[in-house]
Structure formats: structure tokens, C-alpha cells
């Protein structure tokens, strides 16, 4: 059964600024938690059908592959994601709160690749929390990058 984590953050920026930064994998090292470098990127990124493969920092997730299922400019993107330990569906959505404020929601619905009698407990107590914290750090750093770009 898939598990889900979700975070949201209000960003003081225009939607166009938020999207430009979010969809620029060359800048992900500055805000995506654990991101190391792009391994492979489709020419049509971030469109539906495109793929991005990236490697985490040492000790992280290893190779992460994101295959875009859906993309709607101004609204968000849904991608199938997979790494060494999990597979799932990640969604980012953007909602304009005011002309210069955007609420970004980042959600991950995932399944762990390995199972076992203690895996559900470990997931509940540690993995789910770690994933939510990681998504939260990503959005917090996104806010900092946007401020830096404006300043």
C-alpha cells in the first residue's frame, strides 16, 4: 500500500519566477535536498514524457530517475520517481495566493522496494518523517534561492 508525505510553503515571488527556478535542474544543487548532479536530461524537459536522471550526494539516494507523467504550465507536474530504495509518484503544484505569492505543494506517494516484518514500523517511525523533512528542506531552500535571485 502506498504511503504519502506532503509539504507546502508560501513563497514571496511571482509564479513565473517560481516555475523558472523549479524546472531548471541545473540549479537544483542549490535547493533540492540531497541533489548532486544531473546524469541525463531529456531535451523536452519538463514536458510529459520527458526523463531526468540525477545522482545524489554521497551517502544519499544514489541514482534517481524521474519520468514526467503530466505537466501543466502554471499548475504543476507529476512524475514517476525511482531510486534504490523506493518507487512512487511525486507531484509539485503551484497556486497563486496573491500576484507576488505562490503556494508550492510537494507530495510524494511511495512504496518501499524491500519489505519485511519491521519495515512498516521503520517506515512509520523513520522513513516517512525523513522524506517529509527532506521535502520541507527543499521548499525552504527554494524560498531562499528565490530571495537571492530577487536581491
Topology readout:
Blueprint lengths: L2 E9 L3 H8 L12 E7 L9 E6 L6 E10 L3 E7 L3 E13 L2 E12 L6 H32 L1
Antiparallel strand pairs: 1-7, 2-3, 3-4, 4-5, 5-6, 6-7
Model description:
The chain is an alpha+beta fold and 151 residues long. The protein has one domain (3-150): START domain (Alpha-D-Glucose-1,6-Bisphosphate, Chain A, domain 4, 2-Layer Sandwich). It has helices at residues 15-22, 119-150; strands spanning 3-11, 35-41, 51-56, 63-72, 76-82, 86-98, 101-112. Strands 1-7-6-5-4-3-2 form a seven-stranded antiparallel β-sheet, with helices on one face. A hairpin with a 3-residue loop joins strand 4 (63-72) and strand 5 (76-82). The longest helix is centred in the last third of the chain and has 32 residues, at 119-150. It is globular, with a radius of gyration of 15 Å.
Features:
Alpha-D-Glucose-1,6-Bisphosphate, Chain A, domain 4, 151 residues, alpha+beta, globular, seven-stranded antiparallel sheet, single chain
Question: What's the quick description here?
Answer:
With 151 residues, the chain is of the alpha+beta class. Helices cover 26% and strands 42% of the residues.
Structural class: alpha+beta
List the domain count as a whole number. Answer: 1
Q: Regions with pLDDT < 50 over 5+ consecutive residues?
A: none
In spatial order, strands of the major sheet run 1-7-6-5-4-3-2
CATH evolutionary superfamily: START domain
Amino acid at each position: 500500500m502506498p504511503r504519502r508525505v506532503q509539504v507546502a510553503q508560501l513563497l514571496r515571488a511571482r509564479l513565473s519566477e517560481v516555475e523558472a527556478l523549479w524546472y531548471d535542474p541545473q540549479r537544483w544543487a542549490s535547493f533540492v535536498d540531497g541533489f548532486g548532479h544531473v546524469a541525463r536530461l531529456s531535451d523536452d524537459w519538463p514536458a510529459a514524457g520527458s526523463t531526468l536522471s540525477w545522482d545524489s550526494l554521497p551517502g544519499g539516494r544514489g541514482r534517481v530517475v524521474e519520468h514526467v507523467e503530466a505537466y501543466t504550465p502554471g499548475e504543476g507536474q507529476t512524475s514517476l520517481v525511482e531510486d534504490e530504495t523506493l518507487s512512487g509518484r511525486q507531484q509539485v503544484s503551484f497556486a497563486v495566493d496573491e500576484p507576488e505569492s505562490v503556494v508550492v505543494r510537494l507530495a510524494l506517494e511511495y512504496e518501499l522496494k524491500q519489505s519485511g516484518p519491521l519495515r512498516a514500523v521503520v517506515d512509520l517511525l523513520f522513513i516517512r518523517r525523513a522524506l517529509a523533512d527532506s521535502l520541507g528542506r527543499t521548499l525552504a531552500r527554494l524560498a531562499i534561492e528565490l530571495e537571492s535571485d530577487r536581491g
